[in-house]
Design goal:
Blueprint lengths: L2 H8 L40 E12 L2 E12 L3 E5 L6 H7 L10 E9 L2 E2 L7 H7 E4 L10 H11 L6 H14 L3 H4 L12 H13 L5 E5 L7 H14 L4 E5 L3 H7 L2 E6 L2 E7 H6 L4 H7 L5
This protein binds adenosine-5'-diphosphate and magnesium ion.
């Protein structure tokens, strides 16, 4: 038990019970008063038997500033892992380190080891374009290319030479749109601009675009935060279907969403992985005081 948890236990604060109580009568907490996380060890088991990706002792820096502190975490094959935590705790930074998207930020340095199927993705001979096809990404704000719906999806397969004929490309585009649950809505307007779709449709188009290159892992960074509840629900259903074929890591600020879509949840706080475990346990019997404070809404 770490110092904070020990102190909390003395006060009778730690463990189950209190987590489910409404927090209204409690004072909101200022996250800055919980700024020293240096002594904390991750609570829960960050490792799984069948890991698709594994991070070991990962530290990420933006110039001198450390954004991720010694994080070790597996993402299991065909699981949905949710990453939650207060704004600025490093969720996006950690997610981007899983497909080397941080490489494009010059001041950003990633230390430690991250493997995909046991192979280090930071090896110098790793082709990052290929890596990002295997580990695709969907962003917070839907970002279709200023091209037709068809071309948005065909773009990746074309660069990677995945289709050898127009018919093969058509098949990839149609299948990807189907898997993203968008085909029926757009089948008569494939030549229309992707940017003309609604927000929810644009996000499903971006998912179709990610799927089109047959990724193995899909990283999603708050994919529903710009969407209305109905469009979000559609994406959540889709995530549930996609996990049959893909490994998914999703950052979300919605705890309800994390609870609905994921099997495991990781709670980050100021760059540290504080607690990880089965989603239902994290939300019903959080073990760390910080996790409990977060899920009961005490960090504003
Ligand atoms: N491109 C960047 N340059 C410098 N600092 C950054 C950059 N991106 C993120 N950070 C810093 O890293 C920390 C973690 O940020 P981020 O990963 O975006 O957190 P989250 O996604 O949990 O909100 C924050 O302190 C943020 O200011
Ligand atoms: Mg973020």
């Amino acid at each position: 038990m770490n110092a904070f948890a020990a102190e909390a236990a003395k006060k009778g604060l730690s463990g189950s019970g209190a987590a489910t109580k409404p927090s209204k009568e409690k004072e909101p907490l200022d996250i800055r008063d919980h700024g020293d996380v240096s002594g904390y060890e991750t609570i829960g088991v960050p490792f799984v038997d069948d890991a698709k990706m594994s991070a070991r002792n990962v530290n990420v820096f933006y110039a001198e500033k450390q954004a991720i502190i010694d994080v070790s975490l597996d993402i299991g094959r065909n699981e949905v892992l949710a990453m939650i935590g207060p704004s600025g705790c490093g969720k996006s930074t950690f997610l981007r380190s899983l497909n080397r998207m941080n490489d494009i930020i010059p001041i950003c340095k990633v230390k430690g080891q991250i493997t995909l199927d046991g192979v280090d993705i930071y090896e110098s001979d790793q082709d990052t374009v290929l890596l990002r096809a295997r580990v695709g990404m969907v962003f917070q704000k839907p970002n279709p290319f200023p091209k037709s719906i068809y071309e948005n999806v065909a773009y990746g397969p074309r660069i990677h030479g995945l289709a050898h004929s127009k018919a093969e490309m058509d098949e990839i585009v149609v299948n990807s749109l189907r898997r993203a649950g968008l085909f029926d809505e757009v089948k008569d307007q494939l030549d229309k601009p992707g940017t003309g779709l609604s927000g929810g449709q644009q996000q499903r188009l971006c998912i179709a675009r990610a799927i089109a290159v047959s990724p193995e892992v899909i990283l999603m960074d708050e994919p529903c935060s710009a969407l209305d509840p109905i469009a979000s629900a559609r994406i959540e259903e889709l995530i549930d279907e996609l996990k049959e074929n893909y490994t998914i890591a999703i950052v979300t600020h919605s705890m309800q969403q994390a609870a609905r879509v994921s099997q495991r949840t990781a709670y980050f706080h100021l760059g540290k992985l504080i607690e990880v475990g089965d989603t239902k346990d994290i939300f019903t019997i959080p073990r760390h005081q910080l996790t409990e404070n977060y899920i009961t809404g005490r960090f504003g």
